[in-house]
Description:
Blueprint: E1 2-6, E2 30-31, E3 34-35, E4 40-43, H1 49-52, E5 64-68, H2 73-87, E6 96-100, H3 105-112, E7 117-120, H4 124-136, E8 140-143, H5 151-167, E9 171-173, H6 181-190, E10 209-218, E11 220-221, E12 224-225, H7 235-238, H8 246-257, E13 268-280, H9 282-289, E14 302-303, E15 306-319, E16 322-333, E17 341-347, E18 351-356, E19 366-371, H10 376-392, E20 397-402, E21 405-409, H11 418-435, H12 442-462
Parallel strand pairs: 4-5, 4-7, 5-6, 7-8, 8-9, 10-16
Antiparallel strand pairs: 1-6, 2-3, 10-17, 11-12, 13-15, 14-15, 15-16, 17-18, 18-19, 19-21, 20-21
Helix pairs in contact: 4-5, 5-12, 6-8, 8-12
Amino acid sequence: MKTTLKFKMIVAPALFLCLSCAREKKQVETTNGKEQLVKLMTLDPGHFHAALVQKTMYPQVDSTIHVFAPKGPEVDDFLNKIAQYNTRADDPTAWKVNTYLQDDYLHKMVTDKPGNVMVVAGKNSKKIDYILAAVKAGLNVYADKPLVINPDGFAKLKEAFRIAEEKGVLIYDIMTERFESTTMMQKKISMLPHIFGELVNGSAEEPAISKESVHHFYKFVSGKPLVRPAWFFDVNEEGEGIVDVTTHLVDLVQWEAFPDQIIDSSQIEMVHARRWPTVLSLQEFQDVTGMDTYPEYLEKDIAKDGLNVFSNGEMTYKINGKYAKVSVIWNYKAPEGTGDTHYSIMRGTKSNLIIKQGKEEGFKPVLYVESKLGDNFEKSLNLAIENEIGEQFPGTTLEKIEEGKWKIGIPDQFKIGHEAHFAQVTSNYLKYLELGELPKWEVPNMLTKYYTTIAAYKKAKEN
């Protein structure tokens, strides 16, 4: 049964697309010389990222979105968030939503095809099958990470990219962390040889580049406590931590250390990987899911100390001859006044670039530069802040913390937060759509990114 929900406003964040290019995959599809709107279809939204796609509107995106999903609390939550965005006081959106809520939702979407871009954020176990079905039907895919969570999924991903190439459609994952301001600044400075030098080779004990993120099951999204579905805690559905959030970190390693370069899987060597659980009490599980008891499918993970969720993992690997380390940690709830945190270091021959987000930083990410040179370094760093850095980040300041160490002051205008990064990803991708193609390194590096996380998963399971 098909119903139509009309909310008071108009379009939203496109995010992912590239219209089905019947004309060579080089320009946006046109009819009688008129550019056509991107039309979004949201499939089985089970993660709040699906709604964040709709938090902003774009002129290139049709105001009507088509939702295909089974009935249940997850799609209800998605629709409620869209309604909230449409009725908020500041800059409300104007989505109109067509829904098809039946068990044959996937078949209905690929058969009817009322849109040209499938947006998917939900159960990671199903995602790659959704992607395959979409590209076989000639649809573009814009998917939340991770695209795959196990070796079988990775084999399907390679097949999906092959079919997408044949069909002239695009598969793309949402890499919001590329737009976090301190990370952007870290990358920018690492590309200044007179300041950073070159990335060292590093070692397993002291990698050339390291990234660690700490996340929390209990958190607020769009100003309200996030209710997570129970399956989020089932690693068979969500995936283990070593293949989930690490996707962002592995992506940043490639993006920062080897900008605009194609990285092949043959350039990856997994050195070490491990996994360990976060333990949740029944009360904590109830608080974050709203459920009274553990569902039957989680019984396999229940021990004397509580629910064991293998959400934590770390890997050390070599990429293009450089040592890298990535780790992700999930706690139940952040201390009052704090939130998710991030730590990163890039070690150069002339300086180290370090992002910290601890108590000293007010639990906000801050970038530091540590010199390995003499007195002339500060003068060179000041000139870089005024010139190369100032061009991209006007208003950036430099504060000396101690001898050989400086704090970079990034203006607040560039610190917009995780939810707003979705709009930045969208805007960036819409530019690619105008060109009709992604950068040449994006697709091969996506494949290498997932090759790396799956290699870590297999290595950790051996231990």
